[in-house]
Automatic annotation (TrEMBL):
GO terms for biological process: activation of innate immune response. It comes from Araneus ventricosus. SMART domains: ZnF_C2HC. GO terms for molecular function: double-stranded DNA binding; RNA binding; zinc ion binding. Coiled coil: none annotated. This is CCHC-type domain-containing protein. Residues 182-198, 201-217 form the CCHC-type domain. Residues 315-327 have a biased composition (Low complexity). Residues 284-327 are annotated as: Disordered. Transmembrane segments: none annotated.
């Protein structure tokens, strides 16, 4: 017998409404149309702001890009519809287009029930909830490409939803953090082989002029000079690059801003992450008062001294116990990668009895 209000089941998902109709582009690129390669650097910022405000009202932000274009973030659907119609800013010809990546977000869901469902079908069923692209994560095992139960969803909104409804199931959405992009030619991060201007470098020994396929020389990393391959995920340079990407996505800032933030938190030269962590986790000693030698206590009276025998051999209080932290734990591997689950639990197909 129930005395309270009826609660919805964990798979009801009735509270998750379709949000595709409420999504709209918020970031736009404004390019100056000029036959002589003129940019906004030669235009007064006061003039630009007044022209944008006079056309669509106060926007959330306007920034200069390294490409000499303007990045404008609007506040409402009305502004989003108005800004794409702009052809001029104070008699300056312009073109306006939605930003290629800032108006979308990527998340990861894990669902064993969708393991054998084609991604085309998943996309068709979830388009009403703002899903614009679906990609399944696969891994290579013993030369075979195997599908996993992890899916990467691209949403047509800069804000990632917390949940999504797939049939009768409500699935949690986690932020997708891609692995650092490494060039297969020069082994450096941040670009691909097709756009590389560097020299062919072995990913195993960092010698130039040969591939790493048949290399048997001593391992060395081109990015941190450590004694491992350039594709090792134990590389401190790889981990730092991963942290920069994670910071960029979670804080929704640019890559240079994220890199500056991460580098500002990096220990100075000569102090590794492990050594700094060791010091911070070492067992605390009993705090000593630097002025304790100057503190005097009143001398007890003779009667008190006679009545109370001197107390000696007091036990020294031990310091608080601190769980030891090993170097392996401090330098733990990246757990954001996905592994194939061999022993799958049986999924619940309905409500519990």
């Amino acid at each position: 017998m129930s005395y309270g209000g009826k609660k919805s089941g964990p798979f009801s998902g009735q509270q998750i409404a379709s949000n595709s109709s409420s999504n709209f582009p918020t970031f736009f690129i404004i390019k100056r149309v000029s036959t002589s390669d003129e940019s906004f650097h030669s235009v007064s910022p006061f003039l630009v702001e007044k022209a944008i405000t006079g056309s669509i009202g106060d926007v959330k932000s306007t920034k200069n890009l390294r490409s000499v274009d303007l990045l404008v973030e609007v506040q409402s659907r009305k502004q989003s519809e108005q800004i794409v119609k702009l052809k001029k800013i104070s008699n300056i010809p312009i073109t306006v287009s939605p930003h290629a990546t800032l108006n979308s977000s990527k998340g990861v869901i894990t669902c064993g029930e969708l393991l054998n469902v084609p991604t085309e079908e998943i996309l068709k069923e979830l388009q009403g909830q703002g899903v614009s692209h679906v990609r399944r994560i696969s891994i290579r095992r013993d030369g075979q490409l195997l599908n996993t139960k992890h899916l990467i969803f691209t949403f047509d909104s800069a804000k990632l939803p917390e949940n999504i409804k797939a049939g009768y199931m409500r699935l949690s959405v986690r932020t997708y953090i891609p692995n650092p992009l490494r060039c297969f030619k020069c082994q450096r991060f941040g670009h691909s082989k097709t756009s590389c201007r560097g020299t062919l470098t072995c990913a195993r020994c960092v010698e130039v002029g040969h591939e790493s396929t048949d290399c048997t020389r001593t391992e060395k990393c081109v990015n941190c000079q450590g004694e491992h391959t350039s594709f090792s995920r134990n590389c401190i340079a790889w981990k730092r690059e991963k942290e920069i990407i994670s910071t960029k996505i979670k804080k929704q800032i640019s890559y240079p801003e994220a890199r500056q933030l991460v580098n500002s938190q990096t220990p100075t030269s000569g102090n590794s992450y492990v050594s700094v962590a060791k010091k911070s986790f070492s067992a605390p000693s009993v705090q000593k008062n630097p002025d304790a030698s100057a503190v005097t206590c009143p001398k007890p009276s003779d009667s008190t001294a006679k009545a109370s025998p001197p107390i000696t051999n007091l036990p020294i209080p031990s310091s608080p116990s601190v769980a030891p932290v090993s170097e392996a734990e401090l330098a733990s591997p990246d757990f954001t990668d996905f592994q194939l689950v061999r022993n799958k639990k049986k999924a619940e197909k309905g409500f519990s009895n």
